[in-house]
Amino acid sequence: LSLSLSLKTNYRSRGYFSFWSSLLSDTTTSAAVASSTAVDRLVAHLLPLATAAAPANTTLVGAEWWTHSRPLGRNIGHQLHFDMDERFLHHGIVRHPVVSTVVYLSDAPGGATLVLDQGFTDTEFAHRGWVASAERDSVLMFQGDRLHGVLPANLASSPPPTSHRLTLMIGWWAKKQLPAQKQQKEKQQQQ
Q: What is the pTM of this model?
């Protein structure tokens, strides 16, 4: 990781980082699409699906994205968790994206994604769950406040660790759920 990227993302102190794609500007013009990144083009392509997956009358304003890379043979899964803006937890504020998305980018076999019907504020444990296998070029979308994780891969049948399981995660945010720092960036972009 380069020093400049590390400083911009605060990666060394947090151990992770994410990027932001605004949905407020016109990303549908051919000039905007041509000058955007591959992830921005994918976000624009998936936006109609994310909009359909969001609750009625919800306006999506941004897509927060990050990647996960797991070496084959060492894919022991990823703990169950809720997607959220963790910077507000110490203030007692919990914010979730409206829709969470997993885009499977590699041919590498890996653990399936498990999504449970348990929300962050639910008082009962999950009653149902859905399993999505990790297949290249497939997309999984689910309610952003649902408990989810990655099941361990079948290590006995995995090939030697010569490649990685690569996924792109996208959290789709609506204005009312938009993290405060991102709200400031959006206001600056509108001016």
A: 0.77
